[in-house]
From TrEMBL, chains A, C:
NCBIfam families: SMC-Scp complex subunit ScpB. Keywords: Cell cycle, Cell division, Chromosome partition, Cytoplasm. InterPro entries: ScpB_csome_segregation (IPR005234), WH-like_DNA-bd_sf (IPR036388), WH_DNA-bd_sf (IPR036390). It comes from Cytobacillus purgationiresistens. PANTHER family: SEGREGATION AND CONDENSATION PROTEIN B. The lineage of its organism: Bacteria, Bacillati, Bacillota, Bacilli, Bacillales. Homodimer. Homodimerization may be required to stabilize the binding of ScpA to the Smc head domains. Component of a cohesin-like complex composed of ScpA, ScpB and the Smc homodimer, in which ScpA and ScpB bind to the head domain of Smc. The presence of the three proteins is required for the association of the complex with DNA. Belongs to the ScpB family. This is Segregation and condensation protein B.
Automatic annotation (TrEMBL), chain B:
This is Segregation and condensation protein A. Keywords: Cell cycle, Cell division, Chromosome partition, Cytoplasm. Belongs to the ScpA family. Component of a cohesin-like complex composed of ScpA, ScpB and the Smc homodimer, in which ScpA and ScpB bind to the head domain of Smc. The presence of the three proteins is required for the association of the complex with DNA. It is found in: Cytoplasm. PANTHER family: SEGREGATION AND CONDENSATION PROTEIN A (PTHR33969). Its main location: cytoplasm.
């Protein structure tokens, strides 16, 4: 494999790793090269991204990990995008957060962030501003974090009589039929073992 | 010797079962020998009964349909047809027509389901990322209530994306994941159990823990041991108890 | 601003939008160009990404929005670091039901059951919970049964631009041996039981 392909592979890896980033060790292990070599390649990648006007991405090196990010100079366009008035709907982040709260309420911000794997401050603000969620109490223990729950406005917006009317999640409904699942699992694993 | 469990609902319904029979017997779907297929179908239903499996009512309805078609095929031509010979060709309906039509129609979607599976696989090879958090570059949100154009499906869709993502990122995250039982460990346990036990051990006894993962791992361990020829599995007759013993002991 | 810079800006925008995707309208509005022009640029971007071996990304066009994704051919490397979801999450029953809905929408449950020859309540629940289908209206006549259709999530899950892009419904084709495997196993067992 030559260095040209490495670039593409590393780009894919960094993209998939997201905010967690990748260490030099991880990159080296996937490319099956020495860390020294991986380091050289990353340095090359960073320079070439910075110089290439056709590229909107850059690689940040933070605390020993590399992660993809948008170029600083494009922030002005991102701002334009976010502020465009076309959003009478909720963002993906807000919808996700709302779903987590709806199904797991009452729940603290930290718990939501654990589930989503990303910071959730802003979606919570948005949802509160739209009166879809509210603080419903405080968690036990030190910190006594706010607990969030859905509102009547939420039920109205989604045409629900009450929270129990939320559709069952796939996992939940599948659990109804544990024996079926076992049979499926059996069969799946069995097929796999035949193929291997 | 059968040393595996068979998926009890290998068929999606009576139409699926019929398609399978047609395929297996290498029959032309447009010219089904009704007597033969009915016999096979009934044998199948009978076997399911013997296995004490629940037979969905749809299967029984289809059995009745097949019997009805079979008897119609045996009946002599209707009298009316003799009256007007010109009409005969048009009037003469094959009793099988409706069933064939349903089978052909169902088969289309069964195949389309396979296409979807393939598409889903292709798509799963391409990873997308969640939207970035743009908090820092935007202003505070203004308080604005309602008039949202969102539906429950939007929310469930978002949840799907989240779950897909979680699945992908599991090994990357530092979160504590479920304890997995290594197959190799279970293999050693089983061998120890068998060696410490003179003679044959019931297959079912190996599945003492009813935890789903444990069951699957045990099953895989047994398969592996069979492959390695470390154990010997016997069954006197179909559906009777299966016994397992260490090869060494024989 | 020239088209070289556009590429970089659009890349930044797409990266930030993630799986929420961007519509042509949003892209055009940020770049302050006509949608036609934006479309041409996106087409150009997609081709250049596909051809450039140094790039690990591609652009998916799904239900009227564009989103960045890693290239298929890099999945093998991603697997080394992140778990692949490549095993189908849908049961055979759910896939069949989904196929019927996709090609026949809008369609009622009874009509689906007529085609499949079995009860279809559970698969419908699963598909709804996974947001792959939704109620799109009510049938005429008494009963006024719900009509089902596919969602944008459906397009995303199967990587389709739109419903018209679904593979043609097979008119007539040979039996698929692979799908018959499971059935064969059962059949053998039952044949044996006859012989004993």
């Amino acid at each position: 494999m030559n260095i040209v392909n490495w670039y593409g592979i590393v780009e894919s890896l960094l993209f998939a790793a997201g905010d967690e980033g990748l260490s030099l060790k991880q990159i080296a292990s996937v490319l099956e090269v020495e860390e020294m070599q991986a380091k050289e390649m990353m340095d090359g990648l960073i320079v070439s991204l910075q110089e290439d006007k056709k590229r909107g991405m850059t690689v940040l090196e933070i605390g020993g990990t590399y992660q993809l990010a948008t170029k600083k100079e494009n922030a002005v366009y991102l701002k334009k995008l976010v502020e465009s008035p076309s959003t009478s709907t909720l963002s993906q982040a807000a919808l996700e957060t709302l779903a987590v709260i709806a199904y797991k309420q009452p729940i603290t911000r930290v718990e939501i962030e654990e589930i989503r794997g990303v910071k959730t401050e802003r979606p919570l603000q948005t949802l509160s501003a739209k009166a879809l969620i509210k603080e419903v109490g405080r968690a036990e223990g030190n910190g006594r974090a706010y607990l969030y729950g859905t509102t009547k406005e939420f039920l109205d917006t989604f045409g629900l009589k009450n929270i129990a009317e939320l559709p069952k999640l796939p996992e939940q409904s599948e659990e109804d039929d544990i024996t079926q699942n076992e049979a499926d699992l059996f069969f799946e694993k069995f097929q796999e073992s035949l193929e291997s | 010797m059968q040393h595996y469990n068979v998926k009890i609902d290998a068929f999606e319904g009576p139409l699926d079962l019929l398609l399978h029979l047609i395929n297996r017997l290498e029959i032309d779907i447009y010219d089904i020998p009704v007597a033969e297929i009915t016999e096979q179908y009934l044998i199948f239903i009978h076997t399911m009964k013997e296995l004490e499996l629940d037979i969905a009512s749809e299967y029984l309805v289809m059995a009745a349909t097949l019997l009805a078609i079979k008897s119609k095929m045996l009946l002599p031509k209707h009298e009316e047809e003799a009256f007007d010979e010109d009409m005969t060709l048009e009037m003469e309906e094959d009793p099988r027509d409706e069933l064939v039509e349903r089978l052909v129609e169902y088969r289309k979607f069964k195949e389309a389901a396979e296409d979807l599976k393939e598409l889903e696989h292709e798509r799963s090879l391409m990873y997308t990322k969640p939207p970035s958090d743009l908090t820092e570059i935007t202003k505070e949100t203004k308080s604005e209530k309602a008039n949202l154009e969102v539906s429950l499906y939007d929310m469930l869709g978002a949840l799907q994306k989240l779950m897909r993502r979680k699945k992908l990122q599991k090994p990357l995250s530092t979160r504590i994941t479920r304890q997995e039982i290594p197959i190799e460990m279970r293999i050693n346990e089983i061998m120890k159990e068998l060696k410490g036990f003179k003679g044959k051990k019931s297959f079912n006894d190996l599945f003492s823990v009813s935890n789903r993962e444990h069951v699957v791992v045990t099953f895989l361990a047994i398969l592996e041991l069979i492959k390695r020829r470390d154990i010997h599995v016997t069954q006197e007759m179909n559906f009777s108890e299966i016994f397992v013993e260490a090869t060494e002991g024989i």
